[in-house]
Amino acid sequence: MDRARLAELHGVATSYEPAPGSVVRVPEDTLVAVLAALGVDASTPRAVRDALAAREQAERGRLLPPAVVLRGHAGGPPPLPEGTALSVETEDGATIPWNAEPLPYGGHVLRARTPDGRSASAPLIVAPERLPAPPERGHGFLVQLYSLLSARSWGMGDLGDLADLAAWAGRSAGSDFLQINPLHAAVPGPPTDPSPYRPSSRRFPDPVHLRVEEIPEFAYLTGAAREEVEALLARAAVLREAVLRHDALIDRDAVWELKRRALELLRAVPATPGRRAAYAAFLAEGGQALDDHSTWCALAEAHGPDWRSWPAGLRDPRSARTARARGELLDRVDFHCWLAWLTDGQLAAAQRAAREAGMRVGLVHDLAVGVHPSGADAWAQQDAFAAGMSIGAPPDAFSPHGQDWGLPPWRPDALAATGYAPYRDLLRGLLRHAGALRVDHVMGLFRLWWVPRGHEPRRGAYVRYDAEAMLGVLALEAHRAGAAVIGEDLGTVEPGVREALAERGVLGTSVLWFERDYENAASGEADPEPLPPERWREACLATATTHDLPSTAARLTGDHVALRHRLGLLTRPLAVEQREDAADVARWLAALGRLGLLPEGPGDEEAAVLAVHRFLLRTPARLVGIWLPDAVGDRRPQNLPGTWDQYPNWRLPVADASGRPLSLEELVASPRLQALVDEVRWWGGRS
């Protein structure tokens, strides 16, 4: 009982409910391991008693909580002894009384002094009640940037392609947003993990996305450097044509090998005074975070991409040995700072292109749920991460053994102690050139499933975060950026979470095939009828599919079942899966027909895809997202969960219904895409 009480005091759940009425106890050794990752020894009864006593003594002696979060400009102070004087040191250095009206939004410091002379301070976050909403109801495209190659790409989609697609979508399709995959910096290979959801750093974008020819210094290459870059361009064309014309997979490492050499040549070109001044300003703004990231990149070149295997002194970013190594590798550190600056500039140009094309939101960036344990963020922010822990999910109907995602979680106590500075800085960087932000696994703002190293995923435990603080920081940074936030809230969601998100203005994610009329379903009915469009929630991004799900064409034709069968992923006989899948599709097609959304009649796959999107447009959803591969009939998923080398996850270009890869130029000229664009433009009244 004492250990359970200790766990509760530290936000560690001792049980969970995989289904209503079913309670599973967390194993004792899991509780011990999770508490140890939070700096609490619970290994023996004596250790538990000592930890409880220490916690209770700390609470009795504490004037202020670790962090104070207020909604709106005003709020009540935490409980304090009578006569305690409170003041606020604002983030701009001013000191104002606690009862100042209004308290400014921002990250401040609350100071308290009691009549008997005791004093304390705590981070104070003052955040808006609600996050910004999209300016108006609108539609847009969802795409994985690497999969979108143009005639100018170096073997994978880049930021030049992003700007070009945004300009086309805004002007020709009347789109209001363009949602892309995380562009976070990857752990370098070879081979580089192609998943954008296991990055080295979420704080900085990956320079592999740069359009080299659009860097100003490119025009001033001369002599042997110009000849070498021309040769690199020729090799890049071979990579591009291999993907678009010869069924090759996207090879991120091959692309980066060429770009890195070209960038090294460009760096030797003298910059103009204005460019030098802009770079200096970027370095000053980036500060310690940029220095740490670039130092890790330089050290990874010298010692390999896993900092945990580096020489002991280099594993500490603040050690004297790391400082010496930074000096010895100063040129490479500066090279990686320069790459971050270039990438930031091209991201800004892409968002500018989107807004100039008439998009009311523009780019929607994606925040992955965590970082790779060997990467730059895990090295630079070791105090903020829980050592020996990994984020995952408990067992459910789709993953009976649970899931281990291999990503270290943030420590909630460390976040609070810093006033949520790592989280605030992360959000500020991502929102820098964004009209909105998608938060992957947004339920993680409330709790995360921690799996101790060496344990099976099912032997984990939920650890709770201060959702009021996490949402408050999110609201503050979104308010500052004027950006909306879309939460990916698919799958198992704790009761009350969707309501709490909606209350703060976070949009949800609604995928057509999952929206069912459970309210009017018969008892025990596994797959109720489709939810009528008028009953969908308004505060959401409505879409037909995502990067982790089958494309709409694959769903309608049953190709996704055949694919899983070929890969040995089905747990039931193929005939059973096909029969149930066909019945579900027939149910949806019947619903579309009853609503008059399928005038072409059954049997026409392209017409059915149009009908699905007509349905989405009938809902009150604030945003309607079109998975770009759906617009040309692509049948292949970008990612097939549960596979690693059996399927080319994150390495496929956008293709048409026959599987033929399409360049950006071919894609926008597609009659099939144009037919869908005509539908959404008519709906939006933007001719």
Topology:
Elements: H1 2-9, E1 15-19, E2 22-25, H2 28-37, H3 45-61, E3 68-71, E4 85-89, E5 95-97, E6 106-113, E7 119-127, E8 138-143, H4 159-172, E9 177-180, E10 184-185, E11 201-205, H5 223-245, H6 252-267, H7 273-303, H8 320-328, H9 330-356, E12 362-367, H10 376-380, E13 389-393, E14 403-407, H11 412-417, H12 421-430, E15 436-439, E16 447-452, E17 461-464, H13 467-481, E18 484-487, H14 497-504, E19 508-511, E20 540-543, H15 552-557, H16 559-566, H17 574-594, H18 605-618, E21 623-627, H19 664-668, H20 671-684
Parallel strand pairs: 3-7, 8-9, 8-21, 9-12, 12-15, 15-18, 19-20, 20-21
Antiparallel strand pairs: 1-2, 4-5, 4-6, 6-7, 10-11, 13-14, 13-16, 16-17
Helix pairs in contact: 1-3, 4-9, 5-6, 7-9, 12-13, 18-20
